[in-house]
Amino acid sequence: MNRADALALMQEYTTKEGLRKHMLAVEAAMRAYAPRYGGDVEKWGVVGLLHDFDYERWPDPPNHPLQGSAILESKGYPEDVRYAIKSHADYLTDCPRVSPMDKALYACDELTGLIMATALMQPAGISAVTVQSVRKKMKQKGFAAAINRDDLVNGAADLGVDLDEHIGVVLGAMQGIAGDLGFPTS
Q1: What angle do CA 120, 151, 68 make, to 5 degrees?
Q2: Mutual orientation of helices 17-33 and 41-50 as an angle, nearest 10°?
Q3: Considering the chain, what is the average pLDDT of its residues?
Q4: How far apart are CA 186 and CA 180, in angstroms?
Q5: 158-182 pLDDT, tens digit each
Q6: Spatial CA neighbour of 65 closest among 98, 102, 100, 28
Q7: DSSP letter string, the chain
Q8: Above 90 in pLDDT, residue 104?
Q9: Do residues 171 and 134 lie in contact, with contact meaning Cβ atoms separated by under 8 Å?
Q10: Per-residue pLDDT tens digits for 141-155
Q11: 3-state secondary structure 108-134
Q12: Are 173 and 109 in contact (CB under 8 A)?
């Protein structure tokens, strides 16, 4: 299991640029959190990179993420990687989030979407986004309405991180890969 192979797999199954950027954003956030919990940075990054790789082909529950899990198992990905990916789906009630890696994936997943939407509203892109601007957009129920605000709050709490701190960690990780997300890097 390595990033190059995971990236190739993600690109094989995902053609939509927005979904690819989402997975890159979640990968960056997971890499940022791994050291805080004594996790393997590469493994946590791969979990973030692959968590939605099957979504484009099998968007309906429970096919996503179960189809992806079966593919990952056939390719020799470890059980904890597959479990973390399955646990990010609330509808898989037999996969509760247990480990810090499971909890981090859930906490980072939707938040990256809100941060990306906030950044797209800024002329300067993600470099102009702050924790406060994300919090402001979070209060606007019509903005990025598909993102469940309770999931954002509960995800941070389950991870044991203050929400503002959590937004800062994920935002900083995403700002670190601004070019990969399609934003200016200067």
Answers
A1: 80
A2: 160
A3: 96
A4: 13
A5: 999 999 999 999 999 999 999 999 9
A6: 102
A7: --HHHHHHHHHHH---HHHHHHHHHHHHHHHHHGGGGT--HHHHHHHHHHTTTTTTT--STTHHHHHHHHHHHHTT--HHHHHHHHHT-TT-TTS---SHHHHHHHHHHHHHHHHHHHHHTSTTGGGG--HHHHHHHHH-TTTTTTS-HHHHHHHHHHHT--HHHHHHHHHHHHHHTTTTTT----
A8: yes
A9: yes
A10: 999 999 999 999 999
A11: HHHHHHHHHHHHHCCCCHHHHCCHHHH
A12: no
Task: Determine the topology of domain 3-176 in CATH.
Answer: Hypothetical protein af1432 (1.10.3210)
Task: Return the CA Rg of the chain.
Answer: 15
The tokens 């999931």 sit on which residue? 151
Closest C-alpha to 104, from 94, 112, 92, 93: 112
Compute the distance between CA of residue 139 and CA of residue 143 in angstroms, rounded to an integer: 8
Query: Cβ(43)–Cβ(1) under 8 Å?
Result: yes
Tell me how long the chain is.
Answer: 186
Structure tokens at 23: 């997975």
Rounded Cα gap, residues 1 and 42, in angstroms: 9
Query: Which residues neighbour 79 within 8 Å (Cβ) at sequence distance 6 or greater?
Result: none
* Residue 186 binned pLDDT confidence (cut-offs 50, 70, 90): low
Hunting for tokens 């996969």 — which residue is that?
95
